[in-house]
Amino acid sequence: MDLYYGTCGFPRSKKKLREMVNAVEVQQTFYKPPSLETLRKWREELGEEMRIHLKAWQLVTHPPTSPTYKRVGIRIPKEKVDKYGFLRLTDEVKEAWMKTVECAKALRGDFIVVQTPPSFGYSEENVRRAREFFKWARKSWERIAWEPRGTWREHLDAVKKIVEETGVIHAVDPFRLWPPRSGTEILYLRLHGRGGKEVNYRYKYTDEDLRELAEMIINVKPNEAHVMFNNVYMLQDALRFKELFDKLAREN
Known about the structure:
Blueprint: E1 2-8, H1 14-17, E2 23-26, H2 28-31, H3 36-46, E3 51-55, H4 58-61, H5 67-71, H6 91-107, E4 112-116, H7 124-137, E5 144-148, H8 156-166, E6 169-170, E7 186-191, H9 207-220, E8 224-229, H10 234-251
Parallel strand pairs: 1-2, 1-8, 2-3, 3-4, 4-5, 5-6, 7-8
Helix pairs in contact: 3-6, 7-8, 9-10
């Protein structure tokens, strides 16, 4: 089994991070994609061995009413508000996706993470949108992980059908939902802290938590496991997880 463990974002300098973990999920591409030159430089600083994932640009997933647009100064004209986000296959969303793919190529990245907001909850219309979008998107980038938030958790049969039909990986926080509905051959896990409805970023994982996580992974025998921590203590927790995982793997 190939284990990739790391952080969502850069809690240390890139050159330092490469010595500590073997995976990172770039967050800047979600807010406002950096220049391709900057991304190529990041790859250089992170080294060839680092597994780099990246989040899809928010113009693909989130509506212009999302506060994350305002945070980075993205203003969408009123007449175009319904052209962005929610995996709509509009020219605007397609362009934003292709920009994300450009970023992935510059980073020589692995997974593009598509995190849909709670406002993109389960509905027949959103099932159709997700199915059509992922079928189209995988023509330009094969490895896509989808983390659906909101009411999808109550409609896991629909999630299973979408991921089976489109070939995307169901990204989950394993302490909130297990197992992922795309099967366990390839795992993409995003750890947002225990407690809270969707996230609890200030949570520090206990040794017992990390042991439980390691056991979950070892028990399903995946070919690949990508374990990405997205909490305040992400780096410390990732390193403690790896130590506990190695110990448990030796015992099994």
